[in-house]
Amino acid sequence: DVQLQASGGGLVQPGGSLRLSCVASGFTFGSYDMSWVRQAPGKGPEYVSATNSGGGTSYYADSVKGRFTISRDNAKNTVYLQMNRLKPDDTGVYYCTVYTYWGQGTLVTVSS
User: Fold this and answer.
1) How far is CA 78 from the centre of its chain?
2) What is the pLDDT along the chain (112 residues), one digit of tens a residue?
3) Residue in 14, 21, 94, 29 with CA at minimum distance from that of residue 61
4) How far is CA 79 from CA 54, 64, 112, in A?
5) Intra-chain end-to-end CA distance of the chain, in Å
6) How far apart are CA 108 and CA 55, in angstroms?
7) Which H or E run contains 105?
């Protein structure tokens, strides 16, 4: 079974940083593009960032471009999301996804 275990969320002040991690299992990690999707309270899902299977190509939503960086370690079956200069609008549950599978999510709260 595909499993995606996200971690690293928490409460952070505006302007702060967090690094999310997602450990994957149940599929050939290095063969698949990986994405991060977030869902703010009362809103629909928003694609945040994606990386191709080799990690050489990335996509970022305009709302996070220049502040977030996606990376992956195929030897560790792990994808990361480094989030800097966080804003209250970044608050939400962050999910890592592959194909149609979503992990359980990790909550990020940006508040003073």
Assistant:
1) 11
2) 999 999 999 999 999 999 999 999 999 999 999 999 999 999 999 999 999 999 899 999 999 999 999 999 999 999 999 999 999 999 999 999 999 999 889 999 999 9
3) 94
4) 11, 17, 28
5) 39
6) 24
7) none
